[in-house]
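User: Run a structure prediction on this.
Assistant: Running it now.
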Amino acid sequence: MVDGLWHGREWQTSRPLKIVHVGDFFFSLKRKAPSQFSVGGKLSNGLIRNGHHVIDFSYRDVARAGSLFGSRNMGRHHLFRALKEFLAFTAPDILLLGHGYMIPPSVIEELRQQQPGMTVAQWNVDALFVEENAADFAARHQVVDISFISTAGPVVRQVVGDRGRVAFLPNPVDRSVERGQVFALACPEADIFYSCGNPVRLRTICGQEWHMDEFCELLEERLPPSVRFAYAGVRGQPYVSGAAYAALLEQTAMGLNISRRADHYLYSSDRLAQMIGNGQLVFMERQTGYDCLFSDQEMVFFSSLDELVELIGQYHKAPKARREAARAGWQRYHALFNECAVAHYIVGQMLGTLSEDVHAWRHLTGL
């Protein structure tokens, strides 16, 4: 496990940059959009706190505003015109594209021709094992200066090819966003948190495919009756966002971080940052590779269902040990992957200014 902490160094740069950040942020015109923990919002926070001039361009909202019926698909051409005009007016140093599926490579090429001195980068926290996501990411990779993706290892190059620069993007935390410290609570309201946007979609856990309602039911049967579950979107509980979702994160002692697959090195949904950032003790498969960044005293890693059940039971019976491990994981994740550190890493990778000993974890990503 690499240490990788950069002690005593502020993340502010000597030369402030003007950055137009195209993405989703903490507000959306879409009702009940899950924007409170937006990765785009946290990255913009970090860039600003590092001293840069950041202008957020909410592309979906611009498209909706340009459509008579509030449809982002019908407002695509309005979005393209608005972005071209805005870049011509602002002349940024960097165009940072977050997800940006609505902005095709042909439009990015037009923007580059229009602003020849502008560095262009894309970032994405969607899974590369989803074919549509991989195709979109690979297509834009051909027309940007560098791509950031929340997956590491050889599979990334298999998706994007040998051309161009690509780098791993950690899911960032932000103390102003992830505000909870569950490890400090003597009596949290629940013991195990799990949230699932689509429980019908199968997830592969320890080599076996699971419907998540059935998986959670099995955990309930095998764990002591005293274990209290906090669900969102699974086991008959509604999917929640906003303040209701934040309350679950801030009041549940432990969290299950289960993505659709665990065999893509260092991939995790951004829920990992939300859980550990709020002080939950996080359980995840060892196969994800996160044990190269975090110790067993900071996260709980399992390789089988039996091991998961045993470890949950152990920490449930030992609240002091659970709180100590959760605090250690919270401290390390906030040290490694806070919004300012990740923003500094992104800009440094774009400009090629990172020294070898800064963000040392990046040497383990295989990119």
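The chain has a mean pLDDT of 93.
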